[in-house]
Amino acid sequence: MEIEKIDEARLKDLNRLEKKLGVKFKNLELLNLALTHSSYSREMDEKISHNERLEFLGDAVLELASSTYLFEHFQDFSEGELTKSRASIVCQPILAKLGGKLGLGEMLLLGRGEEASGGRTRTTNLEDVFEAVIGAIYLDGGWEIAREYVMRQLAPEFENVKLGKNLKDYKSRLQEVVQKNPDGKIEYIELDSYGPDHMKTFECAVKINDKICGKGIGKSKKIAEQMAAQKALEKLEK
User: Fold this and answer.
1) Cβ-based neighbours of 178, under 8 Å, separated by 6 or more
2) How far apart are the C-alpha atoms of 94 and 165, rounded to whole Å?
3) pTM of this structure
4) At what angle are helices 123-141 and 143-162 packed, to 10 degrees?
5) How distant, in Å, are the alpha carbons of 2, 17, 78, 176 from that of 56?
6) What is the pLDDT of residues 45-100, one digit of tens each?
7) For an engineered disulfide with 34, which of 66, 89, 92, 132 has Cβ 3.0 to 4.6 Å away?
């Protein structure tokens, strides 16, 4: 496997992204690799490496950095509260939002099909590329630089933990709303799953009285169901 060669125009784009990230890379090829989608690799007859391995590494860095911070700063939290807090921070909506804010979607190297189907703004792609960039930062600069970067990016979410705004169990809230009607019935169903076994993505839906009211995507069924419940709640509130 090869890393995509960087031409002069791409180099300028990567330098601009470095400034936006606030991280100086020793090896810009790692950053470029983090921005290379698997669809691009497939169209190049799989001769070009893609970002899925960096995504795997970045996910681990995010988990460890956020877990360490929560452990050190919230000493009165039980294991369950720590786990819920971390899950509310290191989740698809937040990571995708951060990826979009940094303009990572615009920098992705995509295959033609993925480009045509809206891949630059797809939530899963934005989440994945954000994780891959963190993996690249870790490989290029080491743990401390990666940890500091994660802390900067997630600072508003840690503040929400302090204020108690993060522990939203959407499934429980939806259950309470639906059960106000004695005949109300909730069911969660799995619509689809895709990706390699070590990093599967799940799509789930919530049905209220046999009608689909919300859909969600996540890296576990539980997360996908929470996202579906959140969508259903938003729909009901409207």
Assistant:
1) 184, 185, 186, 208
2) 14
3) 0.73
4) 130
5) 19, 21, 27, 36
6) 667 889 999 999 999 999 999 999 999 998 888 887 888 888 888 888 889 999 99
7) 132
